[in-house]
Amino acid sequence: MFGRDDDRPAGWAVSTGLVDYPAAVAAMEARAAAIAEGSAGELVWLLEHPPLYTAGVSAKPADLLDAGRFPVFESGRGGQFTYHGPGQRVAYVMLDLTKRGRDVRAFVGALEAWVIGALDAFNVRGEIREGRVGVWVERRAPGVPPREDKIAAIGVKLRRWVSFHGIALNVEPDLSHFSGIVPCGVTEHGVTSLVDLGLPVTLDEADAALKASFRRVFGEVEDAAAPF
C-alpha cells in the first residue's frame, strides 16, 4: 500500500526497558536528518516510555487536567495531549516519503491500516472515525448502550519529507493514567487496551502483529540496532 519505490527494507528495532522521552526525541530527530541526507536508512523503533504526557502542536492548556501528576513534554508532532507509559507500545516511524510517493494523506491512511491490521491478528476490529485521530474499537454488551474507545493514537511530523514520531498502541497500560488529560481533546469517548478488552496479549505478541502488518502495508523490514 505504501511501499518504497526501490523495495529497500526499513530497519526494525526494539528497545528493552523504559526509554527517556527527551533522549528518544533527540535520537529520532538525528536519525530523520540522516535519512534526509542519505546517510542512514529508514527505521521503525519500538519502545516503552516511563509515565508522561506529551502536548502536540494543537494541544489546549485546559486539556491538561493534572499538570503535577507526570512530566509534561512539548512535542512537535501533530495532535493534542496524549499519554505514554509502561504497557503501551510506542512505535516511532522514520520513513523517507520521497521514496514512498510524497502523499501525506496516504501516509496517515497507511499508518491507520498498519494498526488496524495488527489488531486484526487478535480478532479486534479497529476502526477510524471522521474528525477523530487514531484507531477506535466499538464495545457492546447486553443491556448497555454501545460505546467507542480509543486503542491507538497516531501523531506524526514530517521534516524534509522524512517522518518521525508515530503510533502508540495500548497493550496493557494503566488506563487510569489517562485521566490526567483529555486524550487528543476528545471528551465523549474513552480509552481501552488489548488487555482491557479481555485479551491477555504480551508486548512481544503485539510486536509480532505490528511487524507482520507493517510488512503488508509498508514493505519488508530487517532487524536493526535500537538507538537505546
TrEMBL record:
InterPro entries for the chain: aa-tRNA-synth_II/BPL/LPL, BPL_LPL_catalytic, Octanoyltransferase, Octanoyltransferase_CS
Give the reaction(s) catalysed. octanoyl-[ACP] + L-lysyl-[protein] = N(6)-octanoyl-L-lysyl-[protein] + holo-[ACP] + H(+)
Q: Which terms under GO biological process does the entry name?
A: protein lipoylation
Organism domain of life = Bacteria
Q: Does Cytoplasm show up as a keyword for this record?
A: yes
- Where, by residue number, is the active site? 184 (acyl-thioester intermediate)
Chief location of this protein? cytoplasm
Report if keyword Cell cycle is assigned: no
> What's a single GO MF annotation on this record?
ligase activity
Which HAMAP family does the annotation name? LipB
What PANTHER family would the database entry show? LIPOYLTRANSFERASE 2, MITOCHONDRIAL-RELATED (PTHR10993:SF7), OCTANOYLTRANSFERASE (PTHR10993)
> Any extra detail in the entry?
In the reaction, the free carboxyl group of octanoic acid is attached via an amide linkage to the epsilon-amino group of a specific lysine residue of lipoyl domains of lipoate-dependent enzymes.
Q: What is this protein called?
A: Octanoyltransferase
This chain's source organism reads: Phenylobacterium zucineum (strain HLK1)
